[in-house]
TrEMBL record:
AB hydrolase-1 domain location: 36-305
The name this protein goes by in its record: Aminoacrylate hydrolase RutD
InterPro entries: AB_hydrolase, AB_hydrolase_1, AB_hydrolase_fold, Epox_hydrolase-like
Signal peptide: none
Transmembrane segments: 367-385
KW Kinase (keyword) present: no
Amino acid sequence: MPYCEVGSRQNATGDANLNNGIKIFYRTYGQGPTKVLLIIGLAGTHDSWGPQIQGLTGSVTPNDDDERRAADGSDNEAGFSGGGIEVCAFDNRGMGRSSVPTKKSEYTTKTMAKDAIALMDHLGWREAHVFGHSMGAMIACKLAAMVPDRILSLALLNVTGGGFECLPRLDRHTLSIAVRFLKAKTPEQRAAVDLDTHYSKGYLEEYVGSNTRRAILYQEYVKGISATGMQSNHGFEGQVNACWTHKMKQMEIELIRSAGFRVSVIHGRHDVIAQIYYARRLAEKLHPVARMVDLPGGHLVSHERTEEVNKALIELIKASEAKTEPHDWTNLPEKSLGWMATRMPLIRKRTDEGNCVSFMRNMFEKLHLYLLYLFGLFALAFENARRTFRSIKPARIGHSIT
């Protein structure tokens, strides 16, 4: 199996204590001069990129499976007949077949971006198109800011800015999902809650033949989770820590904006995990090199709207190769950044109005965060109480025996 050991390649950066012995499992697909690195999100494996791997290379058969690859000669959706694109997808540390460090401090988007750089070095890739989903998009942002000269284009799917922006909308639906997620202990329970997390309700209730998509996907999810196993506590808590501590500084945003490559921010407007408001705000910060692609889908919009997502990714690759000018690439209004930049000094002078708006916005964000924090404490207390009750509850005998 293909692995990349990241420790020896990152000792010089001062992260030896975080990376010694860490191995990243990866797979490559397709052949050609165009290189694409796919970075998956929280609790996902490289297999989650299946629809995009198929669309970009024409096959989901990995290159190390020579016998099967020889029998699969289909073309890809991009029109690169003969396999003009080579894709690499991998399992982030803490998930799948990659190493699972035990300390939360060993999981940050910067550290995981260095894993990706080590993998590019391992593959001999000087440059690549980098596409990330959710947490993987956060990692991709860090990667692009760290080595902008090695990025050909950047696609950010269902992304947020990290920290409190990772928190979902506070409503009955998301609270129900959170409780079910905490209680899920089996592949069947996890599969059921994952469906509501990943897809929009309308999509799940559509019929394909005599069954709903929910019923079909449920069986696939149970099979997939059973095969890979439930994510370990160390891996899950570590990856959550990476999301929570992620933040893009203004200097990093400027590095991406000035690097010369194009960016696509792709988001499902019904996403219950990553709110589209924050994705759009990030796209506006990256104006004029960014384009916003708003699709009617959920958090896993790459599966729900495969054709549209693949088309957007292919357009990004072709725009990069054609060196499309920023004003021809972006679909964001000029005032998204430029107008605000020129008006900022005037706005700052209006201290009373400006401070009031800023204060109210901060108050609402803190209130949202506080309510979610309280709910998290309640959910954890409920779970601990339930476990304690089970441990001290006396066994019933007599009439219960039949």
